[in-house]
Design goal:
GO terms for molecular function: DNA-binding transcription factor activity. The chain is mainly alpha-helical. The protein is 59% helix and 5% strand.
Length: 151
């Protein structure tokens, strides 16, 4: 089954936008992500409608952050994308006649509901800026590994 990577792509875009400047084109983002600019625009359109981004058409136009990333949670971005399915597993048949399948679906349904609630709690409590701080920590650790002390 194919995975939906729109949340990952959108978060990637937002983090790069903060570093790239006040206005970023879909083409620049597409090159960075190795993705078609049309795909980038589709992803960003949901973020614009949620008030996370703004867009300017025409020469010199592009996308800009409408809010600071510390005010945008991963949950906000997920919801702006139309709440894509969280899991690729689920019941075989929504209304089965088989009692065994009913028991299986009940158990899976409860487990998936609990997992989804926990995931959404985490997404709503983590800001995109939190991810940015994590990126900076990773860069610092990587830079330390590259610098070897003199003997």
């Amino acid at each position: 089954m194919r995975r939906d990577s729109r949340l990952s792509v959108a978060l990637h875009v937002l983090l790069h936008m903060e570093d790239m400047g006040p206005v970023v084109t879909s083409e620049a983002m597409g090159r960075l992500l190795k993705a078609n600019p049309v795909v980038v625009r589709r992803t960003m359109a949901g973020l614009r409608e949620a008030g996370i981004l703004t867009s300017v058409k025409g020469h010199g136009g592009g996308w800009s952050l409408a809010r600071t990333l510390d005010t945008v949670t991963l949950g906000d971005v997920y919801e702006a994308l139309g709440t894509p399915g969280l899991f690729s597993i689920g019941p075989h048949d929504e209304s089965p006649g088989c009692l065994v399948e009913q028991a299986v679906n009940d158990a899976l349904g409860k487990a998936l509901d609990q997992a989804a609630a926990l995931l959404m709690q985490h997404l709503r409590s983590t800001s995109v800026a939190d991810l940015g701080r994590g990126v900076r920590r990773r860069h610092a650790r990587a830079a330390k590994r590259r610098v070897k002390p003199r003997a």
